Structures are given as C-alpha cells and as structure tokens.
C-alpha cells in the first residue's frame, strides 16, 4: 500500500510538472519573438536550457545520492516554482535566459531522482511494467501540453499560460510535501556506492553494458531531435500539408507510444529485454530512411505511427536495463549521466541537421538520423554479446541485490529508472 501511494504521488507530480512546462515550452520561442528577440538572442535561452541539463545531470545525480531523494525532489520543485513565477513578470530577454538556465538545472535534478524513486518501488519481475505505466504521466502530459497551451494563449494570452505553469508547479510541490515520506534511499545508497561518482562509472563498467546504453540513447535522442526539427519543414515545404494535417502527423507517434507503454512494459518483463531494444531501435532507424520518400499525408501518417510503435518496443526494456546498471553503480548518478547523454543527443541533432540540410538537402537529414541510429544499435549489440560472454564466465555480483528487490519495499532497496 505504501508503494502504491508513493507511485500515485510521483505520477501526479511528474504529470503536473511535464504538463506545465509542456504548455510553456510550446510557445516559449513565440514569446521571445514577441519581445523582440532575434538571431542569437532568440536561440540563446533555448541553448542554455539544453546545456544546463547536459552539464548538471551527472553532478546533481551524485549529489542527490548523498543528500536523499525527498530533499532533492523538493529542491528541484522549489526551483521550478521560482522559474514559473518569474515568467509571470515582464522580464527582459537576458533575465528570461537566466530563468531558462535555472529551468535546465531543475530538470537535470528532477527527472533522474523522480524516476529513481519509481524504480525503487518496482519488484524485479514487474520493473518494466511499473516504469512504462509511470511514463504515461510524461507522454500523456506531452500530448496535452500544446493543446492546453494553445487554448490558454488564445483566451488569456501569455500571462494565462505562465499562470497555469506556476499553479501546476505549486500543485506538484504541495503533493510532494504531503506524499513523499522521509527516510527514502539516498544517503545510504551513496554509502553503498562510494565509487558511484560520474567520473568513476566508466572505470566500474568493465563489461561495457552501461556504455552500450549510453550509445543507444544518444543515437535515439539524435534521431528524435532531427526528425522533430525537420519533419515540419518536410511536411509543409515538400508535401504542402495544412497545419491541421501536419499537427496530426507530428502528434501521432507520441499518441501511439502513450497508448502502448503499459502493454509493452508487460512484454518487457517476459521477453529478453536486450532483444527488444535491438528490435525497436533497428526498426525506428530503418523507418527514418523512408520518411523523405513518403508521397502524401496517409503514407507519412503510417510511417510516423510505425515509428511510435517501434519506439515503444525499446522504451520499457531500456528503462529496466538501466535500473540494473543503477543497482551496480548508484541510482541517481547513473540516471543523471544517462540523461546527460540523452540531452547531448538532443542538442547535437538539430545542429548537425542544419549543416546537412544546407549542403545536401533535407532528405540527407533523415538519412543521417537513420545511419546514426543503426550505428548506435550496432554498438549496443556488440556490447550485449560481450556482456553475455562475461556473464557466462562469471557469476553476476548483482544477483543478490536484484533478488532482494523482488520482495523489498521502496524504502529498503536502491532506487532508479529512466525515460528516454
């Protein structure tokens, strides 16, 4: 019962924060443009947000392992509330850049720790199911965010948008104060994993299984950011689709993922997880190659739906695999480093795509997304083979920990999880 109550609280907190900043982020660039930001000043706040997540994720993950997860969640939510309240004032673009930087720091702390708490509540045989169910709070909010933001902007303007964000952040903070108990893993976890600092993860990962996950998520984030940035251009410039049809295509993959997360989580608890990661990652990468060849709306919609379905094949499986890595190296620092690789892929994708689009055309952008994705899957496959051989030669030192997780409460086992 205690674990279920905690999971409900974490689900609500994640949904509220994701919905709030999903509402704001959908129109943030438009808000900057309305303030007169152009060129560098238009892109600087967005870049600072990504850089803050990349730089701060490993360090803040290590810090949260030491101070405790309840404290870390409350600090991140207080920062979120400060940022959202700041948006209510008519600030200059440089001041908004500072707020955006703080938002990136908050995100670097919030997401890994929250997911670590979720992972701590899941028994080993149900881990992927629990993580996939929790991710509905993330992807469902992402689907609702732009729609709710558009309605608020039309009725109340930007003030209404940012007021809604502040209210949702306040709701999340109050829910955390009431629903997340003290004494959760954190300080004890740091003591058990003295080598869990981010710079030591590489040395401890002798089998390369963690590096394989980093390579996979970098390739996945690279492809997502490329298609997210350039697919709208392809839809309007090449196919000449209306705004409504373009919106349907852009939302279709996320909707498919949201609907299939829990069924795929159940499958990931019963099927070989590394095989699911390989199958899903390979299929998505191949589908990227086909996007520029789609001749019309229905063909493109079929492809984006297929990308969403194939993406969700690997999502719960990779989350569960990362839990196992976190049990070996320290949960929050492992997730923080993982999220740094994720955000590095998100930052590198659009930059690389812009260079390709200017020199080789827009089709080359999607071909690059497929190529990088297949390369990442190949690295994951090679490390998986090596890990399998290592496991055949030596008894796994983490078996007792995993076995204990199956029957322990979320207050007694090392936490974790991830969502890419």
Describe the model:
The chain is mainly alpha-helical and 420 residues long. It has a single domain, classed as Growth Hormone, Chain: A (Up-down Bundle). The protein contains 14 helices and no strands. It has helices spanning 2-34, 40-67, 69-86, 93-120, 127-179, 187-192, 198-204, 209-238, 243-268, 273-290, 297-329, 331-360, 362-393, 399-407. Helix 2 runs parallel beside helix 4 (93-120), helix 8 packs antiparallel against helix 11 (297-329) and helix 8 runs parallel beside helix 12. The protein is globular and about 55 Å long. The relative contact order is 0.16.
Helix-strand blueprint:
Blueprint: H1 2-34, H2 40-67, H3 69-86, H4 93-120, H5 127-179, H6 187-192, H7 198-204, H8 209-238, H9 243-268, H10 273-290, H11 297-329, H12 331-360, H13 362-393, H14 399-407
Key terms:
mainly alpha, 420 residues, Growth Hormone, Chain: A
Order of secondary-structure elements:
HHHHHHHHHHHHHH
Which stretches are poorly predicted, pLDDT < 50 over at least 5 residues? Answer: 187-198, 391-420
Q: Give me the Rg, rounded.
A: 21 Å
Would you give the CATH topology? Answer: Growth Hormone, Chain: A
Principal-axis shape equals: globular
User: Under the CATH scheme, which architecture would be assigned?
Assistant: Up-down Bundle
């Amino acid at each position: 019962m205690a674990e279920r109550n905690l999971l409900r609280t974490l689900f609500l907190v994640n949904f509220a924060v994701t919905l709030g900043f999903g509402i704001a982020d959908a129109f943030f660039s438009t808000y900057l443009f309305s303030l007169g930001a152009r060129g560098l000043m238009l892109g600087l706040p967005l870049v600072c947000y990504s850089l803050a997540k990349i730089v701060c994720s490993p360090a803040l993950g290590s810090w949260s392992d030491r101070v405790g997860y309840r404290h870390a969640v409350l600090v991140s939510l207080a920062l979120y509330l400060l940022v959202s309240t700041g948006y209510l004032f008519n600030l200059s673009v440089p001041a908004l850049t500072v707020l955006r930087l703080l938002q990136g720091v908050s995100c670097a702390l919030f997401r890994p720790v929250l997911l670590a708490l979720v992972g701590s509540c899941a028994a080993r045989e149900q881990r992927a199911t629990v993580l996939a169910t929790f991710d509905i709070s993330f992807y469902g909010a992402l689907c609702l965010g732009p729609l709710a933001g558009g309605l608020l902007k039309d009725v109340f303007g930007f003030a209404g948008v940012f007021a809604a964000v502040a209210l949702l952040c306040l709701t999340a903070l109050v829910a955390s104060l009431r629903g997340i108990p003290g004494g959760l893993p954190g300080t004890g976890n740091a003591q058990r994993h003295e080598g869990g600092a981010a710079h030591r993860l590489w040395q401890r990962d002798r089998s390369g299984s963690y590096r394989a996950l980093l390579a996979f998520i970098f390739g996945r984030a690279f492809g997502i950011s490329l298609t997210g940035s350039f697919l709208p251009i392809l839809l309007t410039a090449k196919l000449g689709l209306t705004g409504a049809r373009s919106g349907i295509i852009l939302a279709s993959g996320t909707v498919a993922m949201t609907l299939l997360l829990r069924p795929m989580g159940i499958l990931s608890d019963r099927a070989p997880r590394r095989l699911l990661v390989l199958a899903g990652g390979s299929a998505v990468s191949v589908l990227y190659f086909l996007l520029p060849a789609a001749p019309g709306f229905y063909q493109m919609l079929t492809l984006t739906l297929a990308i969403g379905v194939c993406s969700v094949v690997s999502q719960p499986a990779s989350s569960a695999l990362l839990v196992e890595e976190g049990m070996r190296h320290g949960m929050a620092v492992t997730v923080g480093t993982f999220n740094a690789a994720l955000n590095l892929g998100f930052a590198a994708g659009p930059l690389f795509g812009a260079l390709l689009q200017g020199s080789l055309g827009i089709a080359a952008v999607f071909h690059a997304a497929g190529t990088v994705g297949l390369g990442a899957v190949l690295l994951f496959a090679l490390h998986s083979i090596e890990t399998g051989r290592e496991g055949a030669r030596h008894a796994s030192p983490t078996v007792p920990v995993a076995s204990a997780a199956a029957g322990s409460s979320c207050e007694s086992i090392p936490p974790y999880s991830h969502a890419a």
